[in-house]
Description:
It is built from 4 helices and 22 strands. The protein is mainly β. The strands form 4 sheets. A 9-stranded antiparallel sheet has the order 2-1-13-14-9-8-7-10-12. Strands 17-18-19-22-21-20 form a 6-stranded antiparallel β-barrel. It has a two-stranded antiparallel sheet with strand order 4-15.
Amino acid sequence: MKIKDLNPNVSISNDGQIRDNSKELTPEFVSYHNKYELESPENYKFIERAWRKEFAKDYLTIPSISSFINVPESVCQADDRTNIKNTSDFPWKMICKLYGTMSDGNRYVASGFFIGPRCIITNGHVVFPNGNWATEIEVIPGMDGNIAPFGSDLSTNFRCVTGWTQDEQMEFDYGAIILNDNTLYDKVGAYFGYEQFNGLPILNNAGYPADKTEGTMWYDAGKVVESTERMFKYMFDTSGGNSGSPTWGNNKRVAGVHGYGGCPNEAVKVIADVMKNWNYWKTL
């Protein structure tokens, strides 16, 4: 069977493995996990400083993925984003700054998030930009400026779906980074759940926009203004670098993967076929 003949939801890896998960069972939802959940007295911040890593200043000048591909991300009217100061706390520590390298050697930044000990979800255009697989992506959870409170991991193991790798359909613009082992997760100790949200929910979003100070995490939230079969549309603010960031409900379950601007801005929805691939990818 040719790849072109496959369902656009079929999982494909950067080493050519193809897997159709369409007949797998879809859970109603997957719950979040936080093994280091603590009581939080006022002004208390839990930091394990032995994990911290400081990056050179050249990390602060790498352009966003949207600088290389035609994927706008937009601030809609007044900018009401909030800078996250406590990025090593829950749930912010589950959100990652990504530093990728394209097949032509160009570097770029984006966002992603944990859904399991070794699985980071992001956009398809982050792991498969400009018609080719990324060569490597560095994952930095909870990055704050040039400080990585949990360190980082460099991966060369990626997943996407053929709807993006073959046809670049925005409705299938999601993928995954598979980490080398559980070392990074053992420090972070948390990952998002996910489920299908119906109607026009109120959603949260946080990531690493390129129009703000490099390496800083920013948050916004709002109500979905339109819901199609595979996309959520909303007016909360994003910018280049937010690609791959999570949109989630108050139950810490992800409803979509942010990837597009235009006011309304858009996220690929978590629906049954997306969940089936995520269920598989998080076992790798």
